[in-house]
């Protein structure tokens, strides 16, 4: 029996396990809404800007390890989503962006909302899928979902021409194959031989561990070998920060020279780009073993052994071999680097925490971002939460809470697109069975990019959503850096005070203002016990990083 194309779109998404469609309406996609409304398995979540809708799909994908789906109108809807798609591309987040568009064959006639979205999105998507006839639509949807999750995850753009939307097609049973390539025994043997010969190896774990769901496998491999584990920004949580072998994700202002003692890096699901290598401060050792589901990037340092495979499959296979040949490993022989790092980092962290209260340390001292983050970290140590943050991780990452559970910390990375945290955190609240508080942690500059979607948190009563603003009336951290180099820059980075409490409450979200250190714990306790979305407006007096 044949079905209408909008029904096939909605039905196929539901059959594929899609739980939410984060969207912003437009004339081109309006025919799909009645079909979505009839699908009881799918919740449609309306946003106020296309960038926010895409970031919400990304936030959902990050906490669930499943593709998020975003639907926008053609033309300006697509151009508004480009920055968010690009962030998803560099973060390896599986997102499917759907639009209904003018047929590609008609490009150039200046149709309403016409733009060549193929050329715009081609560099920042894994694949662009374009069903040319009604019978192609169902396969196009399943292909989009599978492609987003298979191999190195990432965004897929599904462009459905509007001239086939009134057609019909057979509605078939679907299957989605996302099997990953596994490491072979010869590949594992070759890598372990190099590992046996190393004197001071170190594991470098990235988001590929988390995308693979291989956190337990990493912990077991580290335990068996005694090799310490350094994490990239995207890999935070791959090994809990309180694991004795965890080196965490040290900040940029920590002296990374101790890592130069390593003679081998085992790079698991991490790319060797400037952000992961701390802008060149982290020097690569003589030998590198890399395991990644993606092809090797020729612009990165070439690995001595490159295994194109799922990181989890490598860890499982390698641990099995090691258990059978345990006499070849003496875990304690790798402890020098681990112990030396822990001693140096604890000294660094102690000094940094003292700086947070250098203005006097009394409860009436001017409130700074450092001060607040120290208090927030101590609070979250006792109160579980998921944190999404914009670029404030750059100067302050060492003051963030220790990450003890996987998929608990997410941040913009290489692309560095502001406006990520708020909508991504809202999207994460739509994950089923997610009961933890979901925190969006932003500077006021990042918050303003998508602040209108506080109303989305209110509309859908996201009870576990908390927005925290480090409010210093501008792009203060950028201003400090620029002013130090070029002289005073205030007029270019700062603005007059904005009353975020009034803004928040006008959008339906209760607000709490913090102006003194003595009020931090009280405000956090109130927000965490709240049964409705909440905004915390932290009035900081930041003058340096």
Question: What's the short version?
Answer:
37% of the residues lie in helices and 17% in strands. By secondary structure, the protein is α/β, with parallel strands linked by helices.
What do these coordinates show?
The strands form four sheets. The chain has a six-stranded parallel beta sheet, sandwiched between helices. It has a six-stranded parallel beta sheet with strand order 11-10-9-12-13-14, sandwiched between helices. The protein has three domains: 2-170, Rossmann fold, CATH 3.40.50; 185-343, 3-Layer(aba) Sandwich (Rossmann fold), CATH 3.40.50.1220; 357-539, Thiamin diphosphate (ThDP)-binding fold, Pyr/PP domains (Rossmann fold, 3-Layer(aba) Sandwich). The model has no long low-confidence stretch (mean pLDDT 88). It has helices spanning 5-15, 33-37, 50-64, 76-91, 117-121, 137-149, 185-197, 207-212, 215-225, 311-324, 335-356, 369-382, 393-396, 421-428, 444-449, 454-459, 476-486, 490-493, 500-506, 520-529, and strands at 2-4, 20-23, 43-46, 68-71, 95-101, 127-129, 155-161, 168-170, 201-205, 229-231, 246-248, 264-268, 287-292, 305-308, 385-389, 409-411, 437-443, 465-471, 510-514, 534-539. With 545 residues, the chain is of the alpha/beta class. The longest helix is centred in the middle third of the chain and has 22 residues, at 335-356.
């Amino acid at each position: 029996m044949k079905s209408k194309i909008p029904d096939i779109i909605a039905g196929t998404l539901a059959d594929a396990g899609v739980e939410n469609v984060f969207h912003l309406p437009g004339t081109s996609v309006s025919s799909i809404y009645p079909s979505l409304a009839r699908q009881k398995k799918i919740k449609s979540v309306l946003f106020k800007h296309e960038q926010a809708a895409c970031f919400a799909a990304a936030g959902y994908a990050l906490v669930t390890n499943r593709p998020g789906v975003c639907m926008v109108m053609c033309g300006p809807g697509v151009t508004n989503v480009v920055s968010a798609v690009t962030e998803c591309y560099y973060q390896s987040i599986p997102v499917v962006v759907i639009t209904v568009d003018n047929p590609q064959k008609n490009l150039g006639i200046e149709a309403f909302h016409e733009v060549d979205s193929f050329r715009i999105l081609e560099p920042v998507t894994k694949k662009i899928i374009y069903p040319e006839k009604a019978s192609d639509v169902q396969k196009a949807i399943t292909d989009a979902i599978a492609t987003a999750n298979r191999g190195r995850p990432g965004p897929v753009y599904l462009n459905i021409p509007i001239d086939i939307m009134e057609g019909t097609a057979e509605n078939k049973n679907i299957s989605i194959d996302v099997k990953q390539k596994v490491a072979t025994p010869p590949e594992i043997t070759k890598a372990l031989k190099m590992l046996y010969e190393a004197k001071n190896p170190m594991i470098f774990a990235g988001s590929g561990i988390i995308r693979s769901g291989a956190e337990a496998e990493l912990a077991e491999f580290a335990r068996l070998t005694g090799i310490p584990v350094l994490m990239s920004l995207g890999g935070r949580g791959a090994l809990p920060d309180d694991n004795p072998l965890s080196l965490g994700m040290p900040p940029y202002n920590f002296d990374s020279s101790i890592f130069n003692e390593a003679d081998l890096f085992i790079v698991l699901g991490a790319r060797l780009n400037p952000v992961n290598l701390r802008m060149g401060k982290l020097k690569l050792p003589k030998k590198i073993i890399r395991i990644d589901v993606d092809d090797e990037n020729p612009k990165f340092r070439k690995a001595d052994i490159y295994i194109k495979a799922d990181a989890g499959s490598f860890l499982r296979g390698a641990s099995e071999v090691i258990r059978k040949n345990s006499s070849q490993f003496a875990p304690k022989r790798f402890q020098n680097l681990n112990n030396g790092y822990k001693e140096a980092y604890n000294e660094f962290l102690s000094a940094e925490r003292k700086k947070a209260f250098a203005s006097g340390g009394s409860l009436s001292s001017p409130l700074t971002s450092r001060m607040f983050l120290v208090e927030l970290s101590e609070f979250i140590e006792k109160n579980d939460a998921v944190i999404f943050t914009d670029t404030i991780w750059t100067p302050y990452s060492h003051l963030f809470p220790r990450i003890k559970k996987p998929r608990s910390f997410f941040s913009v990375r290489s692309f560095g697109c502001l406006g990520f945290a708020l909508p991504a955190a809202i999207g994460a609240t739509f994950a089923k069975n997610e009961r933890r508080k979901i925190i969006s942690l932003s500077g006021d500059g990042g918050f303003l990019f998508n602040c209108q979607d506080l109303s989305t948190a209110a509309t859908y009563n996201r009870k576990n959503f908390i927005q925290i603003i480090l409010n210093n009336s501008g792009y203060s951290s950028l201003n400090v850096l620029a002013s130090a180099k070029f002289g005073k820059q205030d007029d270019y980075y700062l603005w007059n005070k904005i009353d975020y409490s009034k803004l928040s409450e006008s959008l339906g979200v209760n607000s709490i203002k913090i102006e003194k250190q003595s009020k931090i714990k009280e405000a956090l306790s109130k927000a965490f016990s709240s049964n409705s979305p909440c905004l915390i407006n932290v009035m900081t007096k930041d003058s340096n990083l």
